[in-house]
Amino acid sequence: MLTCHYKVIIAGGAAMIIHYGASRATRDIDAIVEGGSLYEIRDAAKKIADKFHLDD
């Protein structure tokens, strides 16, 4: 559970996939995160990756 709101800006290949419907062009997600704790958002990302069996 996150303790505050975060602003997440997605960039790079992941942004191309989301915005333009491009075919899978990347295996990572480049993001800028504003607000809160870096440790908290990393922990949340790790939990999501584990749940969906994704690589770190």
Short description:
It comes from Candidatus Magnetobacterium bavaricum. Residues 5-41 form the DUF6036 domain. The chain is an alpha+beta fold and 56 residues long.
> Which class of secondary structure composition applies to the elements?
alpha+beta
**Number of DSSP helices?**
2
Order of helices and strands: EHEH
**Uncertain stretches:** none
DSSP strand count: 2
Q: What is the CA-CA span between the terminal residues?
A: 20 Å
Radius of gyration: 13 Å
Domain DUF6036: 5-41
Protein name: DUF6036 domain-containing protein
InterPro entries: DUF6036
Textual characterization of the structure:
This protein is 41% helix and 18% strand. The chain has 56 residues and is of the alpha+beta class. It has one domain (7-51). It has a two-stranded antiparallel sheet.
Topology overview:
Blueprint: E1 7-11, H1 12-20, E2 30-34, H2 38-51
Antiparallel strand pairs: 1-2
Looking at this protein, list some descriptive labels:
56 residues, 41% helix, 18% strand, alpha+beta, two-stranded antiparallel ribbon, single chain, globular, 2 strands
